């Protein structure tokens, strides 16, 4: 007999994601079926009602739009091993069912227009999670020992992107205090695209170069000034901002000039694509000489520092602010810049449309009405907002923060697109990395850097709770938004026992736990859903974890094979 499991409510949300129409109302634990339970989310009521066990039927024969469950006595452990699970998708709900092991799914769409999919097995889930993971061991001896990265697409193609670069800078460019011949500039960037992939791909290709060029000029200028030698903190921040703004001007304004001069639709398609789509950008710049980490944020991606406290637990310190139309400071800035414009922000969005208040591209919020009309009539474009009066409304200029890194304390930084922060709090992310480090320290040869020596005795032996100090302030303090997906799925934030440690890559470890952790059905359902269905439940995910420490100096940066996929991340990257 095929059993039907609880449906998962899906509904429009007052806090919509900028790139999706719907969010989950609830994602209850599929292993526990109560006789009667109800959830209220976003003003809508969803009830799970007991029904009679489903009659003999294939998954495709399940009735339409029912909240069908099995009796309370039935659970997953009672289902025979010789079955496979199916996922049934319709716009408002998800259903899970089972398929006898020797039967195929008879059709991909059932009689009620619902999509029928075979759910991934735990082994397939792990393979999917690790497909695009990369890990690098940094043997420069200059404060960074390792960084891990992973991407999980939801859009097709993925709209996120990332870039990393380590630049050895000679002392005739940037002075060194200890007389060494050179220092390192290290860059890590994550780019959250929207309305397409072309803007984030452009940032992957050139943003670090634009910023490094400005930094080069700033450091050289200071070196030639006997009164300075080292640039001021303000001048370094300005150099980073200048690199961001110059690139966006090239994307937005230079592209139009070139297209109008070329009078070619082929050139227009190539040059205007990064202007018409958009992307947030989060760039970290570490100067090994000063041990200062600067984080430049344009948009709503986020960076968080993890540092071991005196209690033995980790503390989570945000290094960026989520820049959206719902952020009070961003809203006030926009109203100062556009006085008298009632709809400059509406429902937490710019002109009622775009959620990030800072971004690259998004020309429809930056071009004048005349430019948009000219581009649209001659080539192609997007329809401007009816509230457009005094553009630009969106800027690529980042907010830059500076933090003194302590490699001797084993600091780490997590950078991620907002897809991760929709699912986990800052404290959960830092605690999960701390938990992962604790596990690695107990297995020789598996620690960051490939050795355990730098781990020393920092790590606790706690089992149940995450090793993290919890903040007294709420999740929205300081412009940090709460993880909306937890609210929609009905996840209890204090349930530390929902997490697992199964991966050698710290970024993959974070993504696994963000998508469900121990709840195999939850993570399987989320990864089984193909695009575009998946976008209603989760965003693209790009996560980087940077480990600081006092590792040995080999001069090399090497692929960490045990935490990297054999097929690299290129398989999900769209190319310009």
Please identify the structural class as seen in this structure: alpha+beta
Strand order of the largest sheet: 15-14-20-21-9-8-22
Number of strands: 22
Strand content bin: 15-25%
Treating each run of at least 4 consecutive H or I residues as one helix, how many helices?
11
Mean pLDDT: 80
Q: Considering DSSP H and I runs of 4 or more, what fraction of the residues is helical?
A: 10-25%
The 3D shape can be described as: globular
Distance between the termini: 51 Å
Regarding quaternary structure, what we see is: single chain
Can you describe what's shown?
This protein has 576 residues and is an alpha+beta fold. It contains eleven helices and 22 strands. A hairpin with a 2-residue loop joins strand 3 and strand 4 (44-49). The chain is globular and about 80 Å long. Residues 1-77, 451-462 and 567-576 have low confidence and may be disordered.
How are the SSEs ordered, and which strands pair?
Blueprint: E1 8-11, E2 23-24, E3 36-41, E4 44-49, E5 83-90, E6 93-100, E7 115-118, H1 122-130, E8 134-140, E9 144-152, E10 160-170, E11 182-194, H2 198-223, H3 233-262, H4 265-276, E12 278-287, E13 292-298, E14 302-308, E15 314-318, H5 328-337, E16 345-346, E17 349-350, E18 360-361, H6 369-378, E19 399-404, E20 412-416, H7 418-421, H8 426-441, H9 484-489, H10 506-514, H11 520-528, E21 541-548, E22 553-559
Antiparallel strand pairs: 1-2, 1-6, 3-4, 5-6, 5-7, 8-9, 8-22, 9-21, 10-11, 11-12, 12-13, 12-18, 13-19, 14-15, 14-20, 16-17, 20-21
Helix pairs in contact: 2-3, 2-4, 3-4, 8-10
């Amino acid at each position: 007999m095929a059993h039907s499991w609880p449906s998962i409510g899906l509904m429009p949300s007052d806090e919509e994601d900028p790139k999706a129409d719907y969010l989950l109302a609830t994602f209850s634990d599929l292993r526990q079926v109560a006789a009667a339970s109800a959830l209220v989310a976003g003003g809508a009521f969803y009830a799970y009602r007991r029904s009679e066990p489903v009659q003999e039927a294939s998954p495709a024969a399940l009735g339409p739009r029912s909240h069908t469950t099995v009796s309370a006595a039935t659970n997953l452990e009672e289902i025979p091993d010789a079955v496979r699970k199916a996922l049934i998708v319709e716009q408002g709900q998800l259903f899970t069912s089972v398929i006898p092991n020797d039967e195929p799914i008879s059709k991909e769409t059932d009689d009620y227009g619902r999509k029928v999919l075979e759910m991934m097995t735990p082994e397939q889930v792990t393979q999917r999670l690790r497909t695009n993971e990369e890990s690098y061991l940094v043997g420069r001896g200059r404060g960074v020992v390792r960084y891990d990265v992973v991407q999980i697409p939801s859009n097709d193609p993925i709209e996120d992107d990332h870039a990393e670069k380590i630049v050895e800078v000679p002392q005739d460019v940037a002075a060194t205090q200890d007389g060494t011949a050179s220092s390192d500039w290290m860059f890590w960037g994550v780019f959250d695209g929207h309305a397409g992939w072309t803007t984030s791909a452009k940032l992957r290709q050139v943003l670090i170069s634009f910023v490094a060029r400005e930094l080069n000029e700033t450091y050289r200028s200071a070196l030639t000034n006997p009164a300075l030698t080292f640039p001021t903190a303000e001048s370094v921040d300005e150099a980073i901002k200048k690199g961001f703004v110059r690139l966006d001007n090239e994307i937005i304004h230079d592209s139009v000039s070139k297209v109008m001069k070329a009078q070619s639709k082929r050139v227009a398609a190539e040059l205007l694509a990064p202007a018409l789509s958009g992307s947030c950008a989060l760039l970290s710049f570490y100067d090994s000489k000063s041990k200062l980490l600067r984080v430049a944020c344009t948009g709503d991606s986020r960076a968080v520092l993890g540092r071991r406290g005196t209690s033995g637990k980790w503390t989570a310190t945000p290094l960026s602010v989520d820049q959206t139309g719902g952020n009070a400071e961003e809203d006030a800035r926009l109203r100062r810049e556009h006085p008298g414009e009632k709809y400059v922000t509406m429902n937490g969005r710019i002109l009622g449309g775009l959620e990030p208040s800072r971004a690259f591209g998004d020309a429809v919020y930056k071009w004048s009405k005349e430019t948009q009309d000219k581009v649209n009539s001659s080539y192609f474009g997007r329809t401007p907002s009816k509230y457009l009066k005094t553009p630009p409304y969106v800027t690529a200029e980042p907010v830059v923060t500076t933090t003194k890194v302590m490699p001797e304390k084993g600091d780490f930084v997590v950078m991620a697109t907002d897809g991760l922060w929709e699912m986990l709090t800052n404290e959960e992310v830092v605690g999960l990395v701390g938990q992962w480090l604790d596990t690695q320290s107990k297995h020789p040869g598996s620690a960051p850097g490939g050795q355990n020596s730098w781990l020393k005795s920092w790590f606790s032996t706690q089992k149940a709770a995450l090793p993290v100090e919890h903040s007294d302030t709420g999740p929205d303090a300081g412009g940090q938004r709460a993880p909306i997906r937890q609210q929609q799925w009905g996840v209890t934030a204090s349930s530390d026992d929902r997490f697992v440690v199964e991966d050698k890559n710290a970024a993959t470890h974070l993504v696994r736990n963000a998508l469900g952790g121990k709840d195999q059905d939850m993570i399987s359902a989320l990864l089984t859903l193909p695009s575009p269905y998946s976008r209603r439940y989760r965003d693209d995910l790009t996560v980087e974890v940077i480990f600081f420490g006092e590792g040995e100096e080999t001069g090399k940066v090497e692929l960490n094979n045990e935490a990297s996929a054999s097929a690299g991340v290129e398989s999900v990257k769209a190319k310009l």
